[in-house]
Amino acid sequence: MRPLATGTDAGQIGSARDLVKVYGKDEAAVRALDGLSVDFARGELTAIMGPSGSGKSTLMHCMAGLDTPTSGRVVVDGEDVGRMKQRQLTRLRRTRLGFVFQAFNLIPTLTAEENITLPLDIARTDVDREWFDTVVDAVGLRDRLRHRPSELSGGQQQRVACARALVSKPSVVFADEPTGNLDSRSSGEVLGFLRRSVDELAQSVVMVTHDPTAASYAHRVLFLADGRLVGELERPTPESVLDALRDLGTGAVTR
Ligand SMILES: Nc1ncnc2c1ncn2[C@@H]1O[C@H](COP(=O)(O)OP(=O)(O)OP(=O)(O)O)[C@@H](O)[C@H]1O
C-alpha cells in the first residue's frame, strides 16, 4: 500500500486511500467505492470518467466531505476529512472548497454579481475586489454583472456558477458534470474557463464528466469502473479518451 499523502506534499491537493463506500445493507448493499486509492495533483484539472454507477459522484462527494466513506481515508488540502467534525467540515467546504454542479443553482432574484459574491456574503468575508475582477474578466462576464440568471444564457449562467466557486480562492474546485446541461458552444466556454483557472489563476479543479471532449480539457483523466480506479490518461485528446473508454468496455486497463 502506498503511504497516505499529507498536506506536506505540495504536489497534491487531495488523496484517497483504500476508500470503500457501501450504501444500504445485506442483500440491498451497493459497493459504490471498492477500495479506491487516488491522488489529485495541485495546479491541475483532473477529469473523472467511467460508466454510469461506477462511483464518480460518490468519490467526489467523499473527497468534499459531503458523504462519509464506510472505510478508508480522505485528505484534502492537508486536512484528514474523516477526522473532522461536522462544523469543521462545513468550514472547510465554505472557505477552501468550491463547487460547480450540473444544475447552475443560482439564486434567480440576485444579479450575477450578487450570485458570485454570495458565498463570501454568507461567510461574512470581505470581497477581494482585485481577485473578483480577475475572475470576472477570466469568465468574460464584465458586461453581465447586473443581469439576473433568467437574462443570461445557459453557458453564461454556468460561468457565473464557476466564478462563484472561485471567488473565495478555494484550494480546489469540485465540478460534477458542469457541462451536462449545456450545448457544445457553451460547454466550450465553461471548460475553457475551468482550464484557464488552472493555467492562469493557479487553481486546482476536479471534474466529473461523461463527455470525452470535456475530459480533453483536463491535464489528466482518471477512469473508474465498479468503484475502482482502472486507468488514467495524461494529456488527453477526445480521440484518446474515446479509445480508453472503448478499451475499458472490453475490460482492458489503460494505465
Ligand atoms: N444514496 C445512495 N443510496 C444507495 N445507493 C447509492 C446512493 N448513491 C449512489 N448509490 C449507488 O452507488 C453506485 C455509484 O453511484 P454514483 O452516483 O457514485 O455513480 P456515478 O459514476 O457518479 O454514476 P452516474 O454517471 O450515473 O452519475 C451506483 O450503483 C448507485 O446506484
TrEMBL record:
PROSITE patterns per UniProt: ABC_TRANSPORTER_2
A cellular component annotation (GO) from this entry: membrane protein complex
- Which residues belong to any copy of the ABC transporter domain? 14-251
Q: Which Gene3D superfamilies match?
A: P-loop containing nucleotide triphosphate hydrolases
Which keywords label this protein? Answer: ATP-binding, Nucleotide-binding, Transport
One Pfam match = ABC_tran
The protein's matches in InterPro entries, at most eight in alphabetical order, are given as:
AAA+_ATPase, ABC_transporter-like_ATP-bd, ABC_transpr_LolD-like, MacB-like_ATP-bd, P-loop_NTPase
The source's superkingdom equals Bacteria
Show the SUPFAM superfamilies listed in the entry. P-loop containing nucleoside triphosphate hydrolases
- GO MF assignments: ATP binding; ATP hydrolysis activity; transmembrane transporter activity
Please report the name of this protein according to its UniProt entry. Answer: ABC transporter
